[in-house]
Amino acid sequence: MHQSDLDITPKKRTQVSLSYKDNRLKDLAELEKVGLSIYPHMFQSGGLPITSTRECRHKYESLEKGEHTEVSVAMMGRIYSVRSASKNLVFFDLFDEGHKIQVMANIKAYKGSEHEERNQIPEYHASRNTILFRTITKLIHDGDNIGVCGTICKTKLGELSILPSYIQILSPCLHQVPRGSRVHEGNVGLTNPETRYRKRYLDLMVNDEVSRIFITRSKVIQFIRRYLTDLGFLEVDTPVLDVMAGGAIAKPFVTKSNALNTDMYMRIAPELYLKMLVIGGINKVFEIGRQFRNESADHTHNPEFTSCEFYMRGADYKDIMGINEDMYRKLVRDVTGDYRVKHTVRNENNTEDIFIDFTEKFGRIDMIPTLEDILGEDFPDPSTFTSDSARIYFDALCIKHGVDCTVPRTVARLLDKLVGHFIEPLCVNPTFVYGHPQIMSPLAKWDRNRPGLTERFELFINGMEYSNAYTEMNDPAKQLTCFEAQGADRDAGDEEAQQVDARFIEALEHGLPPTGGWGCGIDRLCMLLSNVDTIREVILFPAMKGY
Questions:
Q1: Which residues 6+ apart lie within 8 Å of 406 measured at CB?
Q2: Could you tell me if 428 and 466 are in contact, meaning their C-beta atoms sit under 8 angstroms apart?
Q3: How far apart, in Å, are the Cα atoms of 357 and each of 10, 329, 351?
């Protein structure tokens, strides 16, 4: 376990934290003695606009070694390293949004009193700058937020620096900051997952890579929103709380509305409401938002996650397949600058990099015939998959091949496990798996040529699902039949099976035109494009047990 994680017993951690905190507060009281606050309302920049460290580095990186400018700037950031050469010369590393600049605090250049509000300080005298300089530079610790005014220069060693005429503590850090990757090269920083996910602010403070992951996440969402908007889709918001959970096969969270005096569900998908909007005349509609599923948490699942779904009048699953392929290829290029994505395979002994290629046409696998070929079996006719004999057949098939499936062992669940075991590992480069049985796809329209199957696909990349789409069921009578078949699975103990939603059936009776629908998990896309192998890395505050 990494020492920097401070992963010690709660009692000892509290004692260490309080001791450090008390000592810091005691020392910081010295600022009040010279009339300065450790929590000022504003940075007194003397009228200078705030310049970011990124802007400063971009503009002045080309300075020669030892070159000094007369350009005055004001900067804000957090301190991650303090190096004292003497009481009159102190060096700080100032970071802001992942970019560093050195603060070379020299008493000869310091003019602190000129920036102060005179009504808050004692009468000025010539030695005050010396007092302020030595007080401020002595009190600044790792983690403190400060503001600096000064001129830009490059040291003789080539370090881009600001020579401060004024330094102001904007808010102190009252806890010890772990030595992170941005402090020393080669230092891996905060590594304890429990600490990192519970205290994401600390993770962001010390680990550079974390910030880059969430910048990638933002780029993914912005690209998808821009892509769909450019195709003429309208972005909407649908209810997160509802009296019924539908639109997906998942177990919902249950809550209660005091105002309505009724149980309500956190949504598991926005699908049914979005299709109601197509019925109402919004021909291209999409939503990016949170979904909530009361399922197990593992490296690819979090009870709270972000999805995007869109619905398009006049499209079928083949049209949507084309849009999906085009979107993902352009997304990968936009975010990474390449059409190939590096994925690091990690195991106990070593790591291996593989490259997932989005250049070529995405693969296609027909689910049922492929399973039959792999297993050397002739399955029952898909139109009979609702029968008990089909359930017995697939139950025996899973047992024969050692494929685990927990109860209830319904046909839909057994088939899903077979696909996960035999087909999904084949899909390293992007591959569409299509032709799902109707019993696995209660909201998808039947295949126009193959009874018992549907016009549906899932996109798999490196063995993981990245999108799900189908030609939408728009026959209200057949939709009701599919819901009722799901009801039989619920009676058998499958808490994820969908309920009969009479409101949606009534909406379908008003006429849903031929429509194609699509959905993806934003978090999994971010995992892929950030080369991380757990969903908690791409959610700022993932679900955690206890405090």
A1: none
A2: no
A3: 47, 9, 19
Cα 365 from Cα 435, distance rounded (Å): 9
* Residue 345: strand pairing partners: 352
* Residues with Cβ within 8 Å of residue 403, at least 6 apart in sequence: 397, 417, 418, 421
Percent of the chain with pLDDT over 70: 91
- The per-residue b/e assignment along 342-381, b for 16 or more CB within 10 angstroms, e otherwise, is ebeeeeeeeeeeeebebeeebeebebbebbeeeeeeebee
Identity of the amino acid at 361: K
Amino acid (1-letter code) at residue 103: V
CATH assignment of 209-538? Answer: 3.30.930.10
- DSSP structure string for 65-127: TT-EEEEEEEEEEEEEEEEEEETTEEEEEEEETTEEEEEEEEGGG--GGGGS-GGGSPPP-TT
Strand order of the sheet with strand 254-257? 241-242, 262-266, 254-257
Fold held by 3-206: OB fold (Dihydrolipoamide Acetyltransferase, E2P) (2.40.50)
- Report residue 177: phi and psi, to 5°: -95, 125
374: which 2 tokens? 């792999």
Query: Residues 365, 457: contact at Cβ < 8 Å?
Result: no
Q: Is 345 left (phi over 0), alpha (psi -120 to 50) or beta?
A: beta
Q: Please choose, from the candidates 540, 8, 440, the residue with its C-alpha nearest in 3D space to the C-alpha of residue 221.
A: 540
**Rounded CA separation 324/424 (Å):** 18
Helices (H) and strands (E) in the chain, counts: 14, 18
Which H or E element spans position 484?
helix 476-491
- Dump pLDDT digits (tens) for 52-71: 999 999 999 999 999 999 98
For the whole model, what pTM was predicted?
A: 0.88
Give the number of other Cβ atoms within 10 Å of residue 517's Cβ: 27
SS3 state at 56 = helix
Question: What span, in angstroms and rounded, lies between the C-alpha atoms of 14 and 454?
Answer: 59
Query: According to CATH, where is 2.40.50.140 located in the chain?
Result: 3-206
pLDDT, residue 121, reads 47
CA distance 91 to 461: 48
Per-residue tokens: 424: 């999904």
| Domain boundaries for CATH 3.30.930.10 within the chain | 209-538
197-236 pLDDT, tens digit per residue, is 999 999 999 888 899 999 999 999 999 999 999 999 999 9
Torsion of CA 131, 133, 139, 141, to 10 degrees: 180
